[in-house]
Structures are given as structure tokens and as C-alpha cells.
Amino acid sequence: MDTNRLSQTITAALNRQMTNEAHNAQIYLAYAAWADSEGYEGIANFLFRHANEERNHMMKFLEYILKRGGKVKVSPIPDPGPDPTDVNDCFERIFKSEVDNTANIYNLVNMSMEEKDWATWNFMQWFVKEQTEEETLALDLLSKIKVAGGKNAGPDALYALDNDLAKTADDARLAQDVSVENP
Ligand code: OFO
What is the dihedral angle through the alpha carbons of 114, 56, 52, 22, rounded to the nearest 10 degrees? Predict the structure, then answer.
């Protein structure tokens, strides 16, 4: 008796996305190690924590495939690429990788809709919300570095930014969570 509730196409896409999440975790991990070695401990700490979040996303995909009776395929994780050239470059690359990942997530949502695989469609909604949150978080980083002077940010501004990020929560608040009383 076939107990697999996922099509071959969806299984392959979910497995690919599992690797994408692992790749994102590696990117955050690599950038965190770079930030630490440059003396930005606050930024490093923020990025290390975020690497863990991405790893948790990877696990969510793995668990979902198993729960639906599908076959998990653990594949090699692509190289995170070269180190950032500066903090501005680091935050720009983070934003780009989040936008790329949103495209991957939307692709899976489209596929599940085409197949009328509503269980997978429903599972993916958590990631749609999460990507909105992460893009907001990445945009916040870009705003902070812009205020600090962007590519030309001086040591004092970078020091303040580093301290600020050490205290920043991992999750950005979504617009729908904001109210007039609680802006
Ligand atoms: Fe996995 O959430 Fe960002 O990419």
C-alpha cells in the first residue's frame, strides 16, 4: 500500500527547499564568522542566532516530508560564497538572499496550488509569513547601515550599530501585528 501523500514533483521541490534553507543557514554562519573576525561581535551574535533559525526551517521541511510519507533526500549544501567586503555589503547580500528565498517559497506555493495539494499549500503559508518577516528584518538592517553612512560608515557609527544589533530581537514585527495603540 502506498502511504506517500506527496507527488514526485512536490517531493523533489520540498527536498530542494530543505537544501535552500540549509544554504541560507550556511550564509548566515559564514557572515557571522566574518563579522566576529572583523571585531563586530554584536552583528556576529545576531547572525549566529539567525543561522539557527534557518536551520530550524530546514528541519521543518524535513519533518513535513516525513510526516506526509515522502522520501527525504539530504543533498550537499552549496558554498556560501566569498566573505562580505564590509558591513554594508554583508547586509545587502543578506537582503538579496532573503528575496531569492521568498521566490523559492512562492514557487512551492504555486506548485502546491497547481496540484491541489492543499496540505502542502497550508504548510507553506507559515513560510510565506516568515519570509515577509525576514525581508522586513533585512530591510531594517539596510536602513540601519544607511543611517550609519552606508559604504562610508565610519568606526563610531559602526561601533554604535554593532552595539545596537547585539540587543536586537531576531524577529521583526509584521505590519499586521501593529496597531494604533501599539505602533
Ligand atoms: Fe528560511 O527564512 Fe530566511 O531565508
Answer: -50
Q: How far apart are CA 98 and CA 179, in angstroms?
A: 26
Q: Does domain 8-172 bear CATH number 3.40.50.300? A: no
User: Domain residues of the chain, as ranges?
Assistant: 8-172
Q: Is the pTM of this model over 0.85?
A: yes
Q: Does residue 57 line the site of ligand 1, with CB under 6 A?
A: yes
Of the candidates 48, 25, 45, the one whose C-alpha atom is nearest the C-alpha of residue 162 is: 45
The alpha carbon of 28 and the centre of ligand 1 are apart by a number of angstroms equal to: 10
Distance CA 52, CA 36 (A): 16
**Ligand 1 and 15: CB distance under 6 A:** no
pLDDT digit string (tens) for the chain, length 183 residues: 888 999 999 999 999 999 999 999 999 999 999 999 999 999 999 999 999 999 999 999 999 999 999 999 999 999 999 999 999 999 999 999 999 999 999 999 999 999 999 999 999 999 999 999 999 999 998 999 999 999 999 999 999 999 988 887 666 555 556 555 665
Q: Give the closest residue (by CA) to ligand 1 atom 1.
A: 54
